From TrEMBL:
The protein's name in its UniProt record: Signal recognition particle receptor subunit beta
GO molecular function, a single term: GTP binding
Topology term for the membrane: Single-pass membrane protein
A Pfam family recorded for this sequence: SRPRB
Subcellular location per the Swiss-Prot or TrEMBL entry: Endoplasmic reticulum membrane
The family this protein is said to belong to: Belongs to the SRP receptor beta subunit family.
Keywords, alphabetical: Endoplasmic reticulum, GTP-binding, Membrane, Nucleotide-binding, Receptor, Transmembrane, Transmembrane helix
GO cellular component terms, A-Z: endoplasmic reticulum membrane
Length: 161
């Protein structure tokens, strides 16, 4: 990679995520969102809410950064494929979007904190995001033998840098 890229790891925990994201929010040039391919079905609601909150953040949404959904732990036999994870997340983000919309509608005079994701009146799909691009990749960050396969992340960073 010829260009220097600063990577910032933002924790998934809601309590500390916003605090860690604040200093970088206005300058985000891309989002790499790691998903655990083994536990995604069990944690789908939390993962979808986390991704929804990041993508619908008004400052981040306004800059339309490219998004890479990285499906981690693909060195494991039971890992879900990227396409399965995309489908699961699209359905769950659609539910989160509807829930957040009804919460906003019932809050009179409340300040809207989230930008609208996808196309109104249509089920959520990643292809409808205003992001510059959306990609899915599979690999693993910490194999059982200490190995890793993050080539897809490196290639994606080279593409967007």
């Amino acid at each position: 990679m010829d260009k220097l890229v600063d990577l910032v790891d933002i924790p998934g925990s809601e309590r500390i995520r916003d605090l860690n994201l604040d200093p970088y929010r206005a300058n985000i040039r891309g989002v790499v969102f790691f998903v655990d391919s083994l536990t995604i079905q069990k944690e789908i609601r939390d993962v979808a809410e986390c991704l929804y909150n990041i993508l619908s953040d008004e400052v981040i949404h306004a800059s339309s950064p490219p998004l890479l959904l990285f499906c981690n732990k693909h060195d494991q036999a039971l890992a879900k494929s990227g396409s399965v994870i995309c489908n699961l997340l699209e359905r769950e983000i659609d539910l989160v979007r509807k829930t957040k919309s009804s919460q906003l509608a019932s809050t009179e005079g409340g300040v809207r904190r989230h930008a609208s994701l996808g196309k109104e009146g249509k089920a959520f799909e990643f292809s409808d995001l205003s992001a510059a691009s959306f990609d899915v990749a599979e690999g693993f960050a910490d194999g059982r033998d200490g190995s890793c396969d993050l080539r897809a992340v490196r290639d994606w960073l080279e593409k967007i840098a």
